């Protein structure tokens, strides 16, 4: 055995050289690993006793990807292309032996080997698209040559890892070897290559998989069309398709050079910077300053949900999906039956789309019990209340829970706005109470706001965070305040949107500006979707807002085919002349002089007060860090990932610019725009939210 450097060894197994990379935790492509590849292969090639070379990794995985910590720093050591050349140009057959996750640059290293073998549990993938870049070390050029442009783009555009089985069926790997016996399997494969005298199969020289698509731009046009909606606003995806098209149309070296150029351009782009910020933010969000990772969590084996309405049903599904039994409580047989049937229908729809088997539907429904007595929740480890948004009702329920729930059970409220401390005070165990704020539809939306009350115990918070992971959510810890982080900021945007339509804009103007910014929909389309009559009643309505007037005219949103928009039978929205007249009349009656409002003003007035509110949230310690606020908005409201979230976006704009605009609006329109002290201070110090 000979050390190549600190992270690699070269050994000879009879006539086969084995280069082992050992750079914990994931053998990422650091300068040392790149050096080890270049130098290790040079040594193996120079050794006359070695007839073939196996590349394998120690620890839990093959090279798992680039060393993201090196991004944006000056390069040292061998470049990745240099290391790859040493492998690909080896005059002796090279076999990559893969376990764990061969992702990104790691996968691109495997692609320069002449053969690949893997264990069944291995995973492969090119996740670059998720960071706003394209593979930059030949991935877009070699993978299409190996498996064809369509399959390659499936992998590149999804960015999600694929299994060894999929890899074998695509032809990414040449053999699957026994789990736990990768080294032996790879050596046997290498001996076989030598015995049969198989050629050095360089992926760069293959043509049979790309030839059929050559001169057929329609192949790529179809792929562009299929992905246009998903990637609205993103830059990298089109460049990825172009790169694969280059692979089909251009000589290898030319395509490779173009790929590298695109990769470097994208790496320096604002979108990629934003997406990398989100990548780190998603990892940071789980860390809680005063609660150690090692804090013991409470066992959660049985869950109770109170209320089988819109939220209760969706919340229950999360736990059923994770295999946890759920007991759900309602007030009447009818409400219970309706709630249960909505859940069943949801699962059946999933099954109809082929994403779940009929048996699976029954398994999940089999874990669900509907009851009418709250006392049936006595043995639940976690109980989540999702009844009407009314403090009196919630307090009554928590007092009852206090009486019936077992000692140590976690008592949670899904309230959107109410004070968790007041709810907790209805019990004699406030340390067990917290908010678990799901977003609608609760079985789909990734975000969970974990609301920490004054007295919430640390193990309770730690358990809630761990549970969120278990049910596939992304959790952000927030403090008690009106609307917590998400809805508190949303209220700013909603207020301005309402003001703007009285001052001169139309609902579709506001919606268009926010949609073009990258949000999934604007505030008025969102209201129509949710229903304008939430919290509205025939008895007390007084024509005092546009919304009330619309409800009075039975324009209650999509469900009545009319709200701020008119809807056709396919729920396509059209600007409504009726609404236009209602708004004009209402403004006239209020004596408002309407004016033309520029798109830029709409954008600033809807979004800058949100940033300002975010600053207040940070000031008050209601969120742990600015990047948590970004996570909330990206995962709870569809804020465009490629801007990095509202707080990162503000930093990108420059906080001085945001502050200047807020001051300007404050002078004209008053305190809705008064800048927070934090914003003032950061600008005075020349800092951004990222520096907090
Ligand atoms: N709808 C949303 O978008 C949304 C999003 C996040 C949070 N929330 C919050 O979730 C909670 C529930 O909202 P929703 O939209 O699901 O309301 P909903 O009206 O759809 O459902 C509430 C259900 O609770 C039942 N209920 C009322 N009192 C009960 C009691 N004492 N015991 C058992 N069941 C009882 C009702 O019969 C009803 O089925 C509210 O606090 C709301 O603010 C709603």
Strand order of the largest sheet: 13-12-11-14-15-16-17-18
Mean pLDDT across all amino acids: 97
First-last Cα distance:
49 Å
The whole-angstrom Rg is 29 Å
What's the total number of strands? Answer: 20
* Outline type: globular
Largest sheet: 8 strands, mixed
Low-confidence stretches: none
Bound molecules: nicotinamide-adenine-dinucleotide
What percentage of residues falls in helices of 4 or more residues? 40-55%
Question: Beta-strand level of the residues, as a percent range?
Answer: 5-15%
Output the number of helix runs.
27
* Class from helix and strand fractions: alpha/beta
Describe the structure.
By secondary structure, the chain is α/β, with parallel strands linked by helices. 47% of the residues lie in helices and 12% in strands. It has 27 helices and 20 strands. Strand 3, helix 1 and strand 4 (52-57) form a beta-alpha-beta unit. The longest helix is centred in the last third of the chain and has 21 residues, at 599-619. Nicotinamide-adenine-dinucleotide binds at residues 306-312, 329-331, 335, 386-389, 393, 397, 414-416, 438-440. The site of nicotinamide-adenine-dinucleotide has 23 residues, from helix 12 and helix 15.
Based on the model shown, name its key terms.
692 residues, alpha/beta, eight-stranded mixed β-sheet, seven-stranded mixed β-sheet, 20 strands, binds nicotinamide-adenine-dinucleotide
In short:
The chain contains 27 helices and 20 strands.
Question: Topology, please?
Answer:
Layout lengths: L1 E4 L2 E6 L2 E6 L9 H16 L5 E6 L22 H9 L5 E5 L2 E3 L1 H6 L4 E4 L4 E3 L13 H9 L1 H10 L3 E2 H7 L4 E2 L5 H15 L20 H11 L8 H14 L2 H16 L2 H15 L18 E4 L3 H12 L4 E4 L3 H20 L5 H9 L1 E4 L10 E4 L5 H14 L5 E4 L6 H5 L8 E6 L8 E6 L5 H13 L3 E6 L6 H18 L3 H11 L5 H8 L15 H7 L12 E3 L5 E3 L1 H13 L9 H21 L6 H12 L8 H8 L1 H15 L7 H8 L8
Parallel strand pairs: 3-4, 4-5, 5-7, 6-8, 7-10, 11-12, 11-14, 12-13, 14-15, 15-16, 17-18
Antiparallel strand pairs: 1-2, 2-3, 8-9, 16-17, 19-20
Helix pairs in contact: 1-2, 4-5, 4-9, 5-9, 8-9, 9-10, 11-24, 12-13, 13-14, 18-23, 19-23, 23-26, 25-26
The structure holds nicotinamide-adenine-dinucleotide.
């Amino acid at each position: 055995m000979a050390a190549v450097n600190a992270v690699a060894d070269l050994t000879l197994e009879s006539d086969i050289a084995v280069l082992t990379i050992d750079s914990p935790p994931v053998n990422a492509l650091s300068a040392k690993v790149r050096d080890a590849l270049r130098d290790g292969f040079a040594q193996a090639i120079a050794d006359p006793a070695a007839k073939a070379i196996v590349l394998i990794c120690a620890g839990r995985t093959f090279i798992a990807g680039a060393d993201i910590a090196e991004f944006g720093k000056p390069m040292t050591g061998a470049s990745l292309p240099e290391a790859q050349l040493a492998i690909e140009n080896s005059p002796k057959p090279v076999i990559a032996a893969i376990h764990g996750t061969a992702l990104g640059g790691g996968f691109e290293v495997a692609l320069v080997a002449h053969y690949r073998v893997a264990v069944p549990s291995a995973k492969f993938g090119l996740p670059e698209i998720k960071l706003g870049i394209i593979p930059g070390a030949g991935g877009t050029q070699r993978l299409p040559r190996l498996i064809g442009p369509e399959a390659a783009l499936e992998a590149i555009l999804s960015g999600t890892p694929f299994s060894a089985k999929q890899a074998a069926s695509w032809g990414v790997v040449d053999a699957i070897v026994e789990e736990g016996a990768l080294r032996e399997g790879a050596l046997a494969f290498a001996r076989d290559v030598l015995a049969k005298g198989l050629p050095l199969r360089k992926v760069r020289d293959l043509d049979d998989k790309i030839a059929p698509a050559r001169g057929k731009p329609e192949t790529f046009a179809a792929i562009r069309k299929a992905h246009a909606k998903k990637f609205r606003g993103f830059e990298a995806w089109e460049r990825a398709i172009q790169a694969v098209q280059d692979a089909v149309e251009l000589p290898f070296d030319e395509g490779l050079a173009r790929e590298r150029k695109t990769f470097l351009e994208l790496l320096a782009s604002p979108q990629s910077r934003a997406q990398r910020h989100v990548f780190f933010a998603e990892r940071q969000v789980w860390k809680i300053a005063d609660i150690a990772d090692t804090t013991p969590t409470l066992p959660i084996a049985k869950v109770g949900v109170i209320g089988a309405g819109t939220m209760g049903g969706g919340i229950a599904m999360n736990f059923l999906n994770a295999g946890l039994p759920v007991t759900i409580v309602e007030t009447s047989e009818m409400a219970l039956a309706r709630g249960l049937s909505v859940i069943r229908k949801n699962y059946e729809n999933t099954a109809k789309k082929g994403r779940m088997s009929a048996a699976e539907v029954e398994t999940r429904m089999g874990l669900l019990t509907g009851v009418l007595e709250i006392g049936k929740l006595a043995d639940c480890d976690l109980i989540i209340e999702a009844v009407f948004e009314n403090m009196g009702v919630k307090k009554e329920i928590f007092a009852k829970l206090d009486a019936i729930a077992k000692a140590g059970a976690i008592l949670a409220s899904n309230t959107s706005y109410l004070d968790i401390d007041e709810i907790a005070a209805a019990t004699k165990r406030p340390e067990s109470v917290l908010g678990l704020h799901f977003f609608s539809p609760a079985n789909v939306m990734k975000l969970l706001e974990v609301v920490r009350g004054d007295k919430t115990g640390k193990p309770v918070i730690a358990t809630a965070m761990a549970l969120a992971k278990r049910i596939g959510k992304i959790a952000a810890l927030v403090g008690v305040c009106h609307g917590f982080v998400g809805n508190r900021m949303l209220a700013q945007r909603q207020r301005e949107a309402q003001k703007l339509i009285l001052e001169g804009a139309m609902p579709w103007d506001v919606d268009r500006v926010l949609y073009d910014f990258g949000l999934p929909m604007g505030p008025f389309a969102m209201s129509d979707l949710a229903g304008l009559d939430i919290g509205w009643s025939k008895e007390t309505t007084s024509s005092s807002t546009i919304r009330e007037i619309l409800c009075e005219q039975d324009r209650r949103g999509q469900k009545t085919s009319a709200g701020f928009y008119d809807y056709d039978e396919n729920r396509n929205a059209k600007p409504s002349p009726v609404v236009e007249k209602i708004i004009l009349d209402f403004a006239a009656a209020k004596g408002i002089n309407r004016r033309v409002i520029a798109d830029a003003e709409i954008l600033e007035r809807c979004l800058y007060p949100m940033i300002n509110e975010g600053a207040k949230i940070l000031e008050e310690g209601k969120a742990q860090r600015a990047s948590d606020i970004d996570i909330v908005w990206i995962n709870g409201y569809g804020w465009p990932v490629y801007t990095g979230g509202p707080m990162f976006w503000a930093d990108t704009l420059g906080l001085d610019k945001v502050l200047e605009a807020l001051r300007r609006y404050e002078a004209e329109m008053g305190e809705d725009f008064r800048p927070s002290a934090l914003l003032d201070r950061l600008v005075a110090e020349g800092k951004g939210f990222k520096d907090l």
